[in-house]
């Protein structure tokens, strides 16, 4: 199970925030990845700012990405603002990419 | 307890609507600047109140800036306030009525100003339809915030501006309220520029500045002071128009300057908290517009204190429209247009295949020459009013016309990506 969650996380690195050009994992937008039942994933995520104009696109991208995996048939993407995103949630790679962009 | 949201809220507007507004606006921008270029001899000699200039001014303010603002609001309001547009089909009808109104109104002002009433009413109807659409949309917003206050006040000012505009046409045609013509005329300009555009730019800047700079941990406490002080400035200036008391004018310009400075300082505080250290050029141009706005507000206060505001009014209004309002819009449009097209073309592709970043969608190489063209053109235009030399005017305004054409090309190019 942990292996599958890790695989989902790695796959999510293909979904970028188009404004920042950094993937959602390194941006620290993915709070939780859960596999409550076989072939189903639940992703708890946030965005860098509430009311981000790209929120539908990014959330849909996460859903498409996970549902595109052969191990998953259905992905449930949930958005939360609590706790709010802070720059501390970014990975070192994310911080480096942001400074270089 | 953690609160969860289903992200697919369906807040995205049909892209044809904002793009139709923006497409029309770019044509109006080029035409308005050409009209100014062709009537330069009058402008340089200090004559602003002429049919050709009225026509150019309304094409610029209504045809370009207002239509851009409407198009952008159709896209930004749903996402910024997390509320879908009340009625999209009504939006297309509003587009048709407003476009017909503005085209016929600008033509009437140019050819037969005394016949501008019917086109003016058509324009009024289009704008009223827009205000109604936004009112119905914002009404359903779950929790109003400070942005709602700024945007709501901007919309109220827009309504007042067009009502006063119609009063002016009526006054010209049948002599209605002719004894208040000057006060109504000045209030019309004040509410159309300071009331409508500035409050709108303030409001959306509070959304866009933190977003484009990725700022976190800043306070929004100064925002109500910006609002309050600026409103006092507007009321005080209107009082001076009605009473002729100079002290109200000085107080009004001082309060507008103070309100704008609080806004400038507040934006600086937000930017200081940014995570993204290297800001995009177009966004920096929008920030540059704030600096220009601060200088223009100071100039109007200094002019008022020296009792010279009436002589400086023409160039100050022109600078206000170009260096604060237009520069802000151009800077933000550079970000908004790629976002619109990206959402339309790639929002269903993200997560499935590699998609471009927003930064790759608009030619940033052309941004710097474009911004230099607009800025140098504006400085030369201003200089031509002082030195009263036609070649300086033609070079300055020529640069602005070229800038408008280049900007339209850059926007059109996005649609090919």
The helix fraction of chain A, in percent, is: 25-40%
Q: What is the H-and-E element order of chain B?
A: EHHHHHHHHHHHHH
Round the Cα radius of gyration of chain B to an integer and report it. Answer: 21 Å
Q: What spatial order of strands do you see in the largest sheet of chain A?
A: 3-4-5
Query: What value does the Rg of chain A take, in angstroms?
Result: 13 Å
Biggest sheet features of chain A: 3 strands, mixed
What proportion strand of chain A?
15-25%
Describe this structure in words.
The complex is a heterodimer of chains A (101) and B (417). With 101 residues, chain A is of the alpha+beta class. Chain A contains 3 helices and 5 strands, in the order αββββαβα. Chain A has helices spanning 2-11, 55-67, 92-100; strands spanning 16-17, 22-23, 30-37, 40-45, 74-80. Chain A is globular and about 40 Å long. The model of chain A has no long low-confidence stretch (mean pLDDT 88). Chain B has 417 residues and is mostly helical. Chain B has helices at residues 16-38, 40-44, 51-80, 88-111, 117-139, 146-174, 181-213, 222-243, 246-272, 281-305, 309-346, 367-387, 390-414; one strand at 4-5. Chain B is globular. In chain B, 49% of the residues are buried. The mean pLDDT of chain B is 89. The chains are: A alpha+beta (101), B mainly alpha (417). β5 (74-80) of chain A pairs antiparallel with β1 (4-5) of chain B.
């Amino acid at each position: 199970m942990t292996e599958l969650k890790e695989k989902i996380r790695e796959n999510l690195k293909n979904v970028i925030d188009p404004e920042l050009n950094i993937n959602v994992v390194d941006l620290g937008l993915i709070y939780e990845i859960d596999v409550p039942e076989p072939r189903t994933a639940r992703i708890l995520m946030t965005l860098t700012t509430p009311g981000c104009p790209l929120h539908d696109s990014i959330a849909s991208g996460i859903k498409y990405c996970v549902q595109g995996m052969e191990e998953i048939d259905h992905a449930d993407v949930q958005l939360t603002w609590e706790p709010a995103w802070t720059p501390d949630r970014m990975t070192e790679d994310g911080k480096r990419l942001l400074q270089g962009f | 307890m953690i609160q969860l949201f289903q992200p697919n809220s369906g807040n995205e507007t049909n892209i044809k609507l904002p793009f139709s507004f923006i497409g029309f606006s770019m044509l109006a921008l080029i035409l308005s600047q050409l009209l100014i270029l062709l009537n330069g001899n009058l402008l340089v000699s200090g004559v602003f109140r002429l049919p050709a200039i009225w026509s150019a001014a309304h094409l610029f303010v209504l045809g370009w800036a207002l239509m851009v603002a409407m198009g952008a609001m159709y896209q930004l309001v749903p996402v910024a306030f997390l509320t879908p547009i009340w009625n999209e089909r009504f939006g297309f009808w509003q587009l048709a009525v407003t476009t017909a109104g503005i085209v016929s109104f600008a033509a009437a002002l140019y050819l037969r100003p005394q016949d501008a009433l019917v086109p003016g009413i058509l324009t009024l109807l289009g704008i009223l339809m827009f205000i109604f659409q936004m009112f119905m949309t914002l009404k359903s917003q779950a929790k109003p915030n400070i942005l709602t206050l700024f945007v709501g006040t901007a919309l109220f000012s827009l309504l007042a501006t067009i009502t006063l505009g119609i009063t002016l046409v009526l006054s010209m045609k049948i002599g209605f309220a002719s004894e208040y013509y000057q006060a109504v005329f000045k209030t019309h300009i004040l509410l159309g520029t300071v009331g409508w555009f500035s409050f709108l730019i303030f409001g959306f800047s509070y959304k866009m500045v933190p977003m484009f700079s990725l700022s976190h941990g800043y306070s929004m406490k100064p925002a109500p002071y910006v609002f309050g002080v600026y409103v006092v400035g507007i009321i005080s200036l209107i009082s001076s128009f009605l009473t002729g008391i100079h002290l109200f004018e000085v107080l009004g310009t001082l309060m507008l300057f103070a309100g704008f400075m609080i806004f400038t300082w507040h934006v600086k505080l937000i930017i200081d908290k940014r995570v993204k250290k290297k800001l995009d050029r177009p966004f920096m141009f929008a920030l540059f517009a704030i600096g220009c706005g601060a200088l223009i507000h100071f100039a109007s206060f200094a002019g008022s204190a020296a009792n010279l505001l009436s002589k400086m009014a023409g160039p100050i209004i022109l600078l206000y429209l170009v260096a604060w309002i237009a520069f802000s819009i151009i800077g933000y449009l550079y970000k908004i247009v790629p976002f619109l097209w990206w959402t339309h073309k790639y929002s269903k592709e993200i997560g499935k295949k590699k998609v471009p970043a927003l930064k790759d969608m608009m030619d940033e190489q052309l941004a710097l020459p474009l911004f230099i063209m607009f800025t140098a053109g504006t400085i030369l235009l201003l200089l031509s009013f002082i030195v009263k030399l036609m070649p300086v005017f033609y070079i300055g305004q020529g640069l602005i016309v070229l800038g408008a054409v280049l900007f339209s090309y850059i926007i059109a190019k996005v649609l090919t990506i």
